[in-house]
């Protein structure tokens, strides 16, 4: 019974560590902390990292992925993520996190304002992590926009 409990406790600790790595990723983005964000991705090019930002093509390789985040950080005045529907699945040294990113962001300030207009967006995301000697590191991030409902029924019958 003790071995089963130890295995359960180890799995729970792994899940908690992956959840923390996922949180660290979004917090680094919110702070605009490029060094912290860079440290969260798998090092080197031995395992090619990949990233798909909503509406972007697939980016592959650590350099290309990190350049994309530098560009986003340089052109985003304010961003905040509220994560919902977070799920973690693990197998061996690989973990999959799915979530909904409820994003609030603002562009450059208009005259007299501290921030530009704030915009909300929903993105569903998949983050894949690999276990390394330094902890869990991002291997892949894929974000896809959630299309907003218009409130109109497409299958409505025409009025007679």
TrEMBL record:
<feature type="compositionally biased region" description="Acidic residues">
    <location>
        <begin position="150"/>
        <end position="160"/>
    </location>
</feature>
<feature type="region of interest" description="Disordered">
    <location>
        <begin position="141"/>
        <end position="160"/>
    </location>
</feature>
<dbReference type="InterPro" id="IPR037401">
    <property type="entry name" value="SnoaL-like"/>
</dbReference>
<protein>
    <submittedName>
        <fullName>Nuclear transport factor 2 family protein</fullName>
    </submittedName>
</protein>
<dbReference type="Pfam" id="PF13474">
    <property type="entry name" value="SnoaL_3"/>
</dbReference>
<feature type="domain" description="SnoaL-like">
    <location>
        <begin position="18"/>
        <end position="146"/>
    </location>
</feature>
<dbReference type="InterPro" id="IPR032710">
    <property type="entry name" value="NTF2-like_dom_sf"/>
</dbReference>
């Amino acid at each position: 019974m003790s071995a089963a409990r130890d295995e359960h406790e180890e799995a729970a600790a792994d899940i908690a560590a992956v959840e923390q790595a996922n949180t660290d990723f979004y917090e680094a983005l919110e702070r605009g902390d490029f060094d912290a964000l860079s440290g969260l991705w798998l090092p080197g090019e031995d395992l090619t990292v990949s990233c798909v930002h909503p509406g972007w093509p697939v980016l592959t390789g650590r350099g290309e992925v990190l350049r994309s985040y530098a560009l986003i950080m340089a052109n985003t005045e304010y961003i905040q993520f509220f994560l919902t529907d977070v799920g973690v699945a693990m197998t061996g040294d690989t973990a999959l996190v799915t979530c909904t990113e409820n994003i609030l962001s603002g562009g450059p300030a208009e005259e007299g304002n501290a921030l530009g207009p704030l915009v909300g967006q929903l993105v569903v995301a998949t983050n894949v992590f690999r276990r390394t000697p330094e902890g869990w590191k991002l291997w892949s991030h894929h974000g896809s926009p959630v299309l907003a409902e218009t409130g109109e029924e497409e299958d409505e019958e025409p009025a007679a």
